[in-house]
Amino acid sequence: MDWNKTKSIFIIVFAILNAFLYSLYLDRYKEAESVDFLSESSNEEKLEAESITYSDLPKEVEALPYVTGTMKTFVATDVPGVDLKKNNRNDRFLSATFTEPIPLNGKASSETLQEFVEETIYEGEQYALWEISEQDRKAVFTQKINGKPLFYSDNGSLTVYWNENGEVTEYEQAIYENVVEGEQQKALISPIQAIHNLYQKRLLPSNTNVDSAELGYSEYVTVSENTQMFLPTWHIKATFEDGTTEEFFVNAVKGDIIEIKEQTEVTQ
Length: 268
Description:
By secondary structure, the chain is of the alpha+beta class.
């Protein structure tokens, strides 16, 4: 037997086999990419079939990291340099009442309240307005984590109260400090995928309109005493066929539904 010829034949056969396997790998890879694209398209078709509508959703979804932060313990120097009637500190929650109410720069509104917070409250620029209750004359602000809102967290919130004359009388505050981004950027699901996940869980019935989808953070796990990890989260607001509204929170990394309770009053 001519071993040189046999060896050459084996080399040629293995080369052909390798080329075939590589070609098969490329075909499977392209097929997988096509399935991913069709999956997103299929989600849209399913939502359309159920008359679940939406508009103005974020088109570009950036990767985001997990983030950690530590609850701040307030000290006397953190209180604005104004005359206070009361300054109660319960470790990490601050409640301050002004001796003389501080007038807003005009009628209570999102603009005047945001201006007051940024100019008067400790680290006020870290808060974004969440909601205003004209009936209760109070405004709730949420802390921004990594530049995005922290959803329903008593430990990262600010509540401002004013009187009938449009003057701020008191406020309650808690804040995370030493906020650190994780090293790894996480790929996030699209808002369409988040909406579809809600539909799959039968949380969005037919003829629902999705009013908005906002990307932010929610409290995830406790790392150590007073230190919390935050998770990228989709905040979905929807209006049902009967006119009622609901809001949902979806894990923007893994897609599961998150239960977040509405913010409660700070207790001293």
